[in-house]
Design goal:
By secondary structure, the protein is α+β, with helices and mostly antiparallel strands. The chain has two domains: 69 residues, no CATH class; 148 residues, outer membrane lipoprotein receptor (LolB), chain A (Clam), CATH 2.50.20. Helices cover 25% and strands 30% of the residues. It is built from five helices and eleven strands. The strands form two sheets. It has a seven-stranded antiparallel beta sheet with strand order 5-9-10-11-6-7-8, with helices on one face.
Amino acid sequence: MAFRSPLLLGALLLETACRLNAPVIGQTADPRSGRDPSLGAEVTLEIMTKQPPYDLIARDGSTCRVAPDVFASARVGSMFRCPWVKGYSRGPVQDPSVVVFFQDTMPTMSPFSEGATYNLRTSADRESLRATIKQQRALWTAARPQNYKFLLRVDCFCPGPRGWQLIQVRGVQAVQAWDKTGQPATLNDWNTVSIDALYDNLERSVDRDGVVQIVFDPRWHFPTHLYTNAARLPDSWGDVRATRLRPL
């Protein structure tokens, strides 16, 4: 078939090129020119962070570029099937500004040396702790920054020491977390939580635990050190540290 119009031929060639190179929903692409993405077989990896405009990042630094609606709905910490591209990012995702937060943090637990101790086997101590929590939480709510970061360490008998993590909070919800190497950490409901969630756990401990020891930050009024020991279960202790709150 002969094309009589050079303009028609040029339009057809342009349309074909666009179809061949357009992004496909869920397909990984490398935006850098001159590099073949070398897509492999689809595998399922955990999403450790999301990098605008449309990249999902796995723990090992592998990248999956997705469509805008997929990017918006993808949840950090969920498993995602994709032809991940290895080597697109420079190794495991790290952020030097995150690592600075962890300077001078202790690698192991230190003894509880200050604060109040409540024997929750007695009604007087239970009521006293409830009153203290209510007062300190009201002060925290009044002073709380809209968005903030802070360091959190949650240790317990099982699974044991977990190490410090940097938590970023918007409102009352933790939205992102990093470990001491600057790599993203998975969000969950026990060791990557907001300070409001810490208060929720503290309020529940009044009727659950046998002993509570606690220290509050004098400026922001959040628990900086919380030790709990269950009333009826052996070796059922928890040790929570929070520090270095920084408004954003």
